[in-house]
Amino acid sequence: MLDIKITKTTTPKAKPADESKLGFGKIFTDHMFIMNYTEGQGWHDARIVPYENVSLSPAAMVFHYGQEMFEGLKAYRGANGEPRLFRPDMNAKRTNATNERLCIPQLPEEDFVQAVKAVVKVDEDWIPRAAGTSLYIRPFIIATDDFLGVAPSKTYMFMIILSPSGAYYASGLAPVGIWIEDDYVRAVRGGIGFAKTGGNYAASLAAQVKAHDGGYSQVLWLDGVERKYIEEVGAMNIFFKIDGKVVTPALSGSILPGITRNSVITLCKNWGYEVEERKISVDELIEAQNTGKLEEVFGTGTAAVISPVGTLRYKDDVMTIGSGSIGELSQKLYDTVTGIQNGTVADEFGWTVLV
Ligand SMILES: *Cc1c(COP(=O)(O)O)cnc(C)c1O
Question: Given the CA of residue 302, which atom of ligand 1 is nearest to it?
């Protein structure tokens, strides 16, 4: 149990008046959570303070070698306005899997969840109310030693900031166009692909710019060795419905183990679908498309929940999936997951945590 000291702001900000214009990641709430780590002492000084800039040495290790991790989850409002979290224990577990890979000290899972709940509680009024909106929660850890040698830092900061975010889909689920990247790669087995860390994103920007220039909104990565097997999309895992079966790339070490991915697999199995977690090549995908067996393609992630894919571009070919509109399974998954998150659909699996 953390002993969290709370200092409230004396100058609260005005909350955004128009919830249809929240967008993503631009507005921050009145408070943030901070806790320090010092070798020999462990995690200490858990506190919630007014949202403000942090002061670090220019030599702080995070600036030079990228020893850092982050998480992403959301607080939703239920039917009676109550704040709800979706599977925060999974974010806590993934934090420690990332930390282990990056030589960042472990953080007790219950402390992670307690810190998230505590800061959301303090800024509870910042959870927007309009349909589809939520309060995005960004926990992260940075290495803070002022030292230019390459080694794991001996001091860290764990922080949580909060950002009210708009409905991802302003007017219903809209299919996206995806660029299958056949030159740049994101991750390799043995690397840090399974870890939620900034380095993976820094490595992804060049391909993202290329995809945007080509008129596509997201990149679909292929494996880093043969550039043949499908891995995942920018910040989403990817699913295919092929001939009635649900297929998604197996967690090979180079793919981020999404919590939405895990929830979707659980729901599909529960509904009686055959779900295959395995290698899937671009060639198999093209073959399925050419024989009319590729029924649906969708991405899964906290931001969009389910993101139907309307078109896939690979080299000079553009595939239109199904009719280019939303598949039946994609829609059902979206309605079910968002319904559980908002408390309008029964939570059979015990995924909801009240703040
Ligand atoms: C966070 C993330 C996902 C999605 O994970 P969720 O837990 O479902 O939000 C997928 N891919 C990458 C690269 C990510 O960083």
Answer: 9
